[in-house]
Design brief:
- The complex is a heterodimer.
- Chain A contains no helices and eleven strands.
- Chain A is mostly beta strands.
- The model of chain B has no long low-confidence stretch (mean pLDDT 91).
- Chain B is an all-beta fold.
- In chain B, the strands form two sheets. In chain B, strands 2, 4, 5, 9, 10 and 11 form a six-stranded mixed beta sheet that branches. In chain B, strands 1-3-8-7-6 form a five-stranded antiparallel beta sheet, with no helix packed on it.
- Chain B is 0% helix and 57% strand.
- Chains A and B meet through strand 4, strand 5, strand 9 and strand 10 of A and strand 4, strand 5 and strand 10 of B.
């Protein structure tokens, strides 16, 4: 168990809908990362937050947004969902903006 | 060209063999290098990380970094069926955005 908790584990929703994925980092970790993993694209970096502030942005679509709250948990919001958004979404946390990032078990999103 | 290249395999070896997994990268600014193991439908698990060039050993696992060649390796000695998983290399800069850039992952099977 990495100590990073993601909910829900599975999510099935229809195209055009909006969903929220939640991540609770390890105790004491200030950084939260979001990654998308699909079969053909591997692990793609979406966005990083550090202590409530956006630190780095990757290939995150405009339909997606994220935030980190004062208690350091983070949420990833996905809207106007398309079939191609079906993937595993992982959250990872780290002490600072550093190296040893620990991943949660992921949320498997299926858009039908 | 991807920043990090990793042969996706699959790689199949007999139990007890020495396994060599490799990644190449293009960004000479990368300073921290990591190997993750991912079992099917699970989150990536951090195996090892190294800073700059050199070797690091942890039990049956050895990580090597050759910054002059932009090449990193993970060796698994006395491989076990339980080592069957996808192995992902990842790397990050020492300054600036701390996102982890991942390779595609190599699927490894150890045959009893």
């Amino acid at each position: 168990d990495s100590g990073v908790t993601q909910t829900p584990k599975h999510l099935i929703t229809a195209t055009g809908q909006r969903v929220t994925l939640r991540c609770s980092p390890r105790s004491g970790d200030l950084s939260v990362y979001w990654y998308q993993q699909s079969l053909d694209q591997g692990l793609q970096f979406l966005i990083q937050y550090y202590n409530g502030e956006e630190r780095a942005k990757g290939n995150i679509l405009e339909r997606f947004s994220a935030q980190q709250f004062p208690d350091l948990h983070s949420e990833l919001n996905l809207s106007s969902l398309e079939l191609g958004d079906s993937a595993l979404y992982f959250c990872a946390s780290a002490r600072g903006g550093t190296t040893e990032a620990f991943f949660g078990q992921g949320t498997r999103l299926t858009v039908v | 060209q991807k920043e990090v290249e990793q042969d996706p395999g699959p790689l199949s070896v007999p139990e007890g063999a020495i396994v060599s997994l490799n990644c190449t990268y293009s960004n000479s600014a990368f300073q921290y290098f990591m190997w993750y193991r991912q079992y099917s439908r699970k989150g990536p698990e951090l195996l090892m990380y190294t800073y700059s060039s050199g070797n690091k050993e942890d039990g049956r696992f050895t990580a090597q970094v050759d910054k002059s060649s932009k090449y990193i390796s993970l060796f698994i000695r006395d491989s076990q069926p339980s080592d069957s998983a996808t192995y992902l290399c990842a790397m990050t800069l020492i300054q600036g955005a701390q996102k982890l850039v991942f390779g595609q992952g190599t699927r490894l099977t150890i045959n009893p």
